[in-house]
Amino acid sequence: MVETPQNQTQGAPLSISEPSSQAVAVLGGRPNGQGIRILDVSEEYVQFWGGDRDHWLGASPKIVHQEAANEQLLTQLHHALSGGKLGLGCSLSGLDHAEEALLSKAPRPLIEWRVTAMSMPGYADNVLVLVQRDITQQVEKEAELKRLATTDMLTGLMNRARFDYLLKHELGRLNRYVRPFSLIMLDIDYFKAINDSQGHDVGDQVLRALAALLEDNLRSADYCARWGGEEFIILAPETSLEQAARLAEKIRQCIGSAAFPGAERVTVSLGVAEAAANDTPKSMMKRVDNALYQAKESGRDRVAC
């Protein structure tokens, strides 16, 4: 936190043992008992919020960017401090409008902040120490790691692990709210022949092109994953077996009429199954897999329910 030597005065700049990415301010109540003021700040706090050190000494602190939210926090801290509700070591923490910061077209830094009640040499009364840290890069890195962990690297679709999670979630919704959903599993017909005759590079191009075709032709509520090899699977929420069969037929026709890089006409076989009240992920996957097997055994390039 903040290192304050015994002989430090309130007019001397703070010395900080934490990394320089953290901004620190010492806060206290105003002499008239009305509100919170800054008693001292680190250079990082000044750099973070702009202005100069003299500008901030005695001023109201900035905890978050949004003015109304900042005033609300300061009022909360003032009442807690003046009412003796903040014992030593007690703290209040939060994020500065995480959703707005991440979704804005011109995102501002995502701030993690913590205010802690402390007793510090050089100050007659207990003070509040505000520590702020820009965690934008950390959050972005974590989001990217999560994306990589749930995405098929070749096609960019979600991977099997992510799809398993969504399937369990939808089965939970079915049991709680009796909301229908269906699965569509599809497999590229004679894909081994494409790899053998054209090479695996062409095979990969076909997989990527088919994934893009699926994303372009599915509804916004549908989920699509690469199940493995040349198999893909679609989860269609709020969709009966009849509706899913029509969607599967649309996909079959779309793929059958599309041009694929380096390959002649590509076709797919599709199996469709609607979730039942007693289904588990394993039982539902078995039924849709059986339907796909039936489509292949019946001659391929067709839909079976």
TrEMBL record:
It comes from the Bacteria. Residues 179-305 form the GGDEF domain. Its EC number is 2.7.7.65. It is an enzyme of class 2 (transferase). GO terms for molecular function: diguanylate cyclase activity. SUPFAM superfamilies: Nucleotide cyclase (SSF55073), PYP-like sensor domain (PAS domain) (SSF55785). Gene3D superfamilies: 3.30.70.270, PAS domain. Its cofactor is Mg(2+). It catalyses: 2 GTP = 3',3'-c-di-GMP + 2 diphosphate. InterPro entries: Diguanylate_Cyclase, GGDEF_dom, Nucleotide_cyclase, PAS-like_dom_sf, Rev_trsase/Diguanyl_cyclase. NCBIfam families: GGDEF. This is diguanylate cyclase.
